[in-house]
Structures are given as C-alpha cells and as structure tokens.
Amino acid sequence: MIASLRNAELVAGRLALDFANLSPSAHDLSWDEFVSFLVDARLVSEDRAARLRPLVRNEPHAVDAVLLRILRLRESLRAIFASLVSKDAYPSSWVEPVNEILRITEGHDELVTRNGGWTLQFVAREGGLEWLLAAIARSAAELLVEGPRAPIRRCANPACRLFFYDDSRTHRRRWCSMKVCGNRHKVSAFLRRQRSSKETRK
Ligand SMILES: [Zn+2]
Predict the structure, then answer these.
(1) Using an 8 Å Cβ cutoff, are 157 and 181 in contact?
(2) How many A from CA of 181 to the centre of ligand 1?
(3) If you measure from the C-alpha of residue 58 to the centroid of ligand 1, how many angstroms do you get, rounded to a whole number?
(4) Angle CA(27)–CA(43)–CA(156) in degrees, nearest 5?
(5) Is 201 helix (H, G, I), strand (E, B) or coil?
(6) What spacing in Å lies between the alpha carbon of 41 and ligand 1's midpoint?
C-alpha cells in the first residue's frame, strides 16, 4: 500500500504532515526517496531532482549530514503530531529540530495561487542542502503555532495511521484518502453485510 503512494498525490493537506508520513514503515530514509518526495510535493522540479540525486555519490558527506537532519526532523515531527492528535502535552525540546532548520535557512514569503485563491509560500535562499528542508520546517512551525486547534488527525485504518489535516467542511474526515483506505473500508463493510445477510437467510 505504501508503495502505491509513491509518486502519487500527497494526501495530508499540509507539507509537514506529508513529510511526517514519509515511508512510515521504514526506519531509514534514502536520499532518493527524499528527493522523490520533494518532487511529489512540488518543492523542486524534475530537472533539479536529476541534479540532486547523484550527490549521494558525488558529495556523500554533505548528503549524510542532511539525511541526519531529515531523520531527526521527521522523528520529532511524528512525535509532536502524535501528541497533538491525542491532545497530549509535549516537551518544548521536541521543536528544536524545527528551530534548527529555521535558523540556518533564510528566505522570503511569496504569494502563489492555489485552489483558486492565494497562499503564502516560503521560498528559501539556496545554499548548502539544508535549504531543501526550509519549506518543511516552515510548514511544521505554522502547524505548531496553530497548536491544539489544528485539526490534525490520523487515518482510521489501524494498518495505515497516516497523518492528515482535516479541513473538510464537517471536520469528520476519517481516512488519509478515500481512494485507498476509505474504499477498502467500504468494501470490507459491504462484504460483512453480505455475509451476515446470507447467514440470516439460512
Ligand atoms: Zn489510510
């Protein structure tokens, strides 16, 4: 199921949540996977990605250093978002990896169109590889500022548990994606009903 999400539309509705969802079953994350995520999230173009991918061979130390930051950021965001979902408090030290990225990446905001309206998008000044994480850290910071009011939820499928931002009108979204987990649930509920109606007919 995770594999089918590759190069697909990201489902969480917020960049930082999509980043926290990145390869949930795997502890590790490869440079290639991260670069593909940047393309999926439209943070870099395919051209740019083609220039980033070989860095794992050409600049292994720089890539290792940024991968370490990526993993640190992902683990702390997962812990923070899980706390927000369950309305638990979390230690302020958990936001340090976010602040770390905010500190080393400079940039500016820019208005871009999205869904027929305007949204502010952070554009990082390029330098080092850390700038690749700038927009993700910025998105995380916005969610943390929103705090417990942020409608962050997890997919109701116990085998999935992806994070998403519920900005549905009714605030009752249950699935990461109707196409994946929502449909699976509908099909199994349908099969259950079929089976039980057959049993009552016997
Ligand atoms: Zn799901």
Answers:
(1) yes
(2) 5
(3) 37
(4) 50
(5) helix
(6) 18
pTM for this predicted structure: 0.81
Distance 15 CA to ligand 1 centre (A): 17
Q: Which tens digit of pLDDT belongs to each residue from 23-77?
A: 766 668 899 999 999 999 988 999 999 999 999 999 999 999 999 999 999 999 9
Res 72: pLDDT: 93
The residues facing 179 across adjacent strands are none
Query: Rounded distance, CA 151 to CA 17, Å?
Result: 12
Q: What number of other Cβ atoms are within 10 A of residue 36's Cβ? A: 16
User: What gap in Å lies between CA 129 and CA 89, rounded to an integer?
Assistant: 32
Strand ranges for 10-124 from DSSP E: 107-114, 117-124
CB atoms within 10 A of CB 123: 13
Token pair 């390029």 in the structure block, residue: 126
- Mean of the per-residue pLDDT values of the chain: 87
**What is the C-alpha separation between 149 and 90, in angstroms, rounded?**
15
Whole-angstrom distance, CA of residue 176 vs CA of residue 18: 10
Q: What is the DSSP string of 131-199?
A: GGGHHHHHHHHHHHHHGGGS-EEE-S-TTT--EEE--STTS----S-IIIIIHHHHHHHHHHHHHHHHH
